[in-house]
Amino acid sequence: MDKRTEISKVLAEPQFGEQVTVMGWVRAFRNNKFIALNDGSCMKTLQVVVDSDKVEESVVKKINFHACIKATGQLIESQGAGQTMEILADTIEILGETNLEKYPLQPKRQTMEFLRENAHFRMRTNTFSAVFRLRHAIAYAIHKYYNDRGYYYMHSPIITGSDAEGAGEMFQVTTLDVNKPARTEDGAIDWGQDFFGKATNLTVSGQLQAEVAALSLGKVYTFGPTFRAENSNTSRHLAEFWMIEPEVAFADIHDDMDLAEDFVKYLINYVLDNYPDDLEVLDQRIQEAEKNMPKEKRRPMGLVEMLRFVVDNDFERITYTEAINVLRGSKDFKKGRFAYEPVWGEDLQSEHERYLVEKKFKKPVIVRDYPKDIKSFYMRQNDDDKTVAAMDVLFPYIGEVIGGSQREERLEVLEKRMQEMNIPEKELWWYLDLRKFGGAPHSGFGLGFERMVLFITGMGNIRDVIPFPRAPKTAEF
Ligand code: 4AD
Ligand code: MG
Question: DSSP H helical segments within 149-220, as ranges?
């Protein structure tokens, strides 16, 4: 194919007077003359001016919304307002027509729901192209952050026999015939005859395997897809999402919190420094969307302003017990504004988390030392015998973005806890071995990738920050 110059390059290093070929999708076409062309390489469009003496009318007729074209001409300084340069195109070739009458997208504002149903085209919009460029940027920054600090990227398995979180929210993986599964003599399903010779599922977390790696290589992280069959039809949950799980030997819960705060601030700074144009578009989207909302429903700050605010302030750090006391002492609780009563020993509801972050402290909050009965078996027990060294990082609008803990390294304590919580020791013999041979204090956490992307892009629904969302009754594309 003929060579093309990417629009990001044309804009960054304009070769005025030279012939340039660009290829991309028409975002807008004004007065049968001015094309706003985008090729995905950056947020901005390049103006292509159609030379009507040279381009045939039959071709001009086909230049319309989201048609794909190739344009060649001289790059000149623009006469008009709004752009500094333009291509004076003497040849235009239509690479892919768009029949606007049949095309699902139209050149007007479309709802997020509608665009989700047309996920195969939504990346052509300003909003979604910005979201997915930022998703890439954040993924890259994650690898850069850990690589620059001497962590090793570990690939944890996607198919496992264990339930790392012990919550039983797993998708089963099997090659048995679901209509006629192999059965044992007593009529139970015979998993011994399944593909792996045992029951297996898609992983809910790579943590347990990351612990193996950390106790050899010192500092590691995983970054892969995880799967949860929780029937949560919310704007914060996916059935398939990506998680980043650092795991560090010789680190306690305080080191873990320091790493979490430094890490998420780094990601936000990376995007602020490198993707201002995409952030700007998303900032404007929010303002537009909130224009007709009552003031109390609008966000108190613009997107970029809020991201700066998060990186410029220390996160608040409190214990779970302090959090419960704050909530019970709050006006919101006393005036009956919570749907759920904050009670010691129970999970914080998202209304409680949002109160702490958005109303009380007005910045991200790290809550630690949760009651052991609402947390996973592997978390290290505190001396009070009631709580574990767990920590959650809570963000405005999103709630929990990170969940982590110091791990129980004491064999007897861990075994006792596994028995109490009915975690099959037989399945996790290798995990227990780590405590028997050369064990060490260690800690880690999981960052929900899409929740982080949701926060940084200011989008309202987690299904709009993953290209093809998987959620209850949703597996199109
Ligand atoms: O708090 P979680 O369940 O922690 C773990 O899985 C630990 N094994 C992590 C570790 O210590 N290595 O999940 C971690 C994060 C949550 O804080 C949340 O951001 C995200 O994963 N998450 C989800 N994101 C989207 N959809 C879901 N259904 C999610 N469930 C958890
Ligand atoms: Mg959690």
Answer: 207-217
Q: What homologous superfamily is domain 7-103 in, according to CATH?
A: Nucleic acid-binding proteins (2.40.50.140)
| Nearest ligand (C-alpha, residue 394) | 1
228 lines ligand 1 (CB under 6 A): yes
Q: Are 293 and 313 in contact (CB under 8 A)?
A: no
- Dihedral angle sign, alpha carbons of residues 345, 346, 350, 351: negative
Closest ligand 1 atom, residue 462 Cα:
25
Give 84-140 pLDDT, tens digit per residue: 999 999 999 999 999 999 999 999 989 999 999 999 999 999 999 999 999 999 999
Q: Which atom of ligand 1 is nearest to the CA of 167?
A: 3
Phi/psi for 155 (5° steps) reads -95, 110
What is the per-residue pLDDT across 436-462, written as a single tens digit (0 to 9) for each?
A: 999 999 999 999 999 999 999 999 999
Would you say domain 124-163+246-464 falls under CATH 3.80.10.10? no
DSSP state of 260: H
Residue of the CA atom closest to atom 15 of ligand 1: 448
227 lines ligand 1 (CB under 6 A): no
How many alpha carbons lie under 13 Å from residue 39 in its C-beta half-sphere? 20
Q: Which of 309, 299, 280 is nearest to 397 (CA)?
A: 299
Ligand 1 atom at shortest distance from the alpha carbon of 228? 28
Bridge partners of 154, per DSSP, are 222
Q: Where are the domains of the chain?
A: 7-103, 124-163+246-464
Cβ neighbours of 209 (radius 10 Å)? 23
Residue nearest to atom 2 of ligand 1 (CA): 403
